[in-house]
Amino acid sequence: MPKIDYYFSTISPYTYLAGDQLEQIAEKHGAEIVYKPLDIVALFGRTGGTPPAQRHENRQAYRAKDLARVSKLNGLDLNLKPAFFPTNAAPSSYAVIAAQAAGTGDVGALVRALLTSVWVKEQNIAEDDVIRACLIEAGFDPALADSGLLSGAETYAANLEEAVACGAFGAPFYVVGDEPFWGQDRLAHLDAHLSGDI
C-alpha cells in the first residue's frame, strides 16, 4: 500500500483549497494518508520562507488574487481576510494528532472542518469549543481536545523536523517515498505518480 506523508497547517489557505482531493486520490490508489500537522511559520523560518504578512506587497497582492481565483475554480468559499488569521495552530494540530491515533472518525473531514472554520466560518480554531465542534462533526469524541496534549506537542515538533528533513518548505506538502509534491495545484502530479505515469 502506498503511503502519503501529508505535511500541512490547520491555518493554511492553500491546504483549505485542496478540499478533499487528497482523500479521493488516496482512495483511488488504495494509499494510506499519514496526516502530519506542523508549525508553518517555523517551517518558513527553517527553510528560507517568509510569513505572508512580512512578504513584499507585490507578493501579498498576488497571493490575494491567486487565492480568489483558486477558490472559484475549486468551488470553495473563501474569506480572504478572516477574523482569526493568523491564530495559534497548535491546539487544533494536537487534536488532529490525537484523532489520528484514536482512529475512530474521519481525519480528513476533521482537517477540512478546522480549515473551514478559519476560512469560511471565521472562527478561532485555537479555542477549545471550536475544536470540539470540529471533532464531533468528523465523528470523533470531543474529549480528544483535552487528551494527549503532551504527546501531541511532541508529535507536532517531530512533524516539523521530519518535514525539513524530507525537503518540505510550505503547505500543503505531500511526500510519497522520495517524491515530494508542493501545493494543492500539484495534486494531479501526485495522482499521476501513484498511477505510474510520472
Give an account of the 3D structure:
By secondary structure, the chain is α+β, with helices and mostly antiparallel strands. The protein has one domain: Glutaredoxin, CATH 3.40.30.10. The chain has 9 helices and 4 strands, in the order E-H-H-E-H-H-H-H-H-H-E-E-H. It has helices at residues 13-17, 21-29, 40-47, 57-74, 90-102, 107-119, 128-137, 149-165, 187-195, and strands at residues 3-8, 32-37, 173-176, 179-182. The protein has a 4-stranded mixed sheet. Helix 2 runs parallel beside helix 9 (187-195) and helix 5 crosses helix 8. The longest helix is centred in the first third of the chain and has 18 residues, at 57-74. The model has no long low-confidence stretch (mean pLDDT 96).
Secondary structure: elements and pairs:
Blueprint: E1 3-8, H1 13-17, H2 21-29, E2 32-37, H3 40-47, H4 57-74, H5 90-102, H6 107-119, H7 128-137, H8 149-165, E3 173-176, E4 179-182, H9 187-195
Parallel strand pairs: 1-2
Antiparallel strand pairs: 1-3, 3-4
Helix pairs in contact: 2-9, 5-6, 5-8, 6-7
Specify the overall morphology: globular
Structural class designation: alpha+beta
Regions with little confidence, pLDDT below 50 for 5+ residues: none
Instruction: Give the SSE string.
Output: EHHEHHHHHHEEH
Mean pLDDT: 96
As for the CATH topology, it is: Glutaredoxin
Number of DSSP-assigned strands: 4
What is the helical fraction, as a range of percent?
Answer: 40-55%
The level 1 CATH classification is Alpha Beta
Side-by-side strand order of the widest sheet:
2-1-3-4
Strand content: 5-15%
CATH superfamily: Glutaredoxin
Major sheet details: 4 strands, mixed
Give the domain tally. Answer: 1
CA-to-CA gap between the ends? Answer: 18 Å
DSSP helical segment count: 9
CATH architectural designation: 3-Layer(aba) Sandwich
Rg (C-alpha, Å): 16 Å
